[in-house]
Amino acid sequence: MAASETGDLTADRVLLGRTSTAERVADILRTRVAEGYFPPGTRLSEDGIGGALGVSRNTLREAFRLLTHERLLVHELNRGVFVRVLAVDDVDDIHRTRRLVECAVVRGLGQPPYALDALTAAVTEGETAARAGDWNGVSTANIHFHRELVALAGSARTDELMRGVLAELRLAFHLVGDPRALHEPYLARNREILEALRAGERTRAEDLLARYLDDSRTRLAAAYERAVDSPPARSR
């Protein structure tokens, strides 16, 4: 498996430290899925990924098992492990989960000021990518925005839950044929939510976010339904 096929995972080997574990490997691969390195339908090579990360076959298989449990991967008998291709119903369910969690995080923030540096950086990242015409970069920045929004809760459990949910969301983004049409409308809305939080207007920020997620659910589900009529060829 070439470096491009493994997302150049060799650079991530340092993250494993001296105590390589399946959980750490799973976290690296989950992040790579969320960042868009492994599109839906991609076959994951044990030899390629294990060699890039410098981990044993057993450790990698356990990481695959963990990510299969999280619905990011699927194991096909006599074929191998593949990045999952979502159904339209999955897209709806992901958005229901996001609305429950993200709106609850904003509602429970307490009194301002809030620690918004990371959220600001995510908004700026998206705007910079848009100016460069990098719509996949905008997609990644959008994932970062929602990850940092949830991180405002200061809850490791909520962060862990949403890492998997947002990685699944990225799987849906991959199959949409026009990423600009999908993501461009939300650049200004991300900025608007940020400015509401900066002004200490928590209730307004929650209302903006709820409407944002409802609109996103409708638009993405429709775009995804069109896209899955012509699924991409599976990597081998």
How do you describe this structure in short?
With 236 residues, the chain is mainly alpha-helical. It has nine helices and three strands; from the N terminus they run H-E-H-H-E-E-H-H-H-H-H-H.
Poorly predicted runs of 5 or more residues: 232-236
Helical content stands at 55-70%
What is the beta-strand fraction? under 5%
User: What is the typical, i.e. mean, pLDDT?
Assistant: 89
State the end-to-end CA separation.
Answer: 10 Å
Compute the number of strand runs: 3
Which series of helices and strands comes N to C?
HEHHEEHHHHHH
Give me the secondary-structure category.
mainly alpha
Widest sheet: strand order?
A: 1-3-2
Radius of gyration from the CA trace? 18 Å
What kind of sheet is the major sheet?
3 strands, antiparallel
- Cα shape: globular
Helical region count? 9
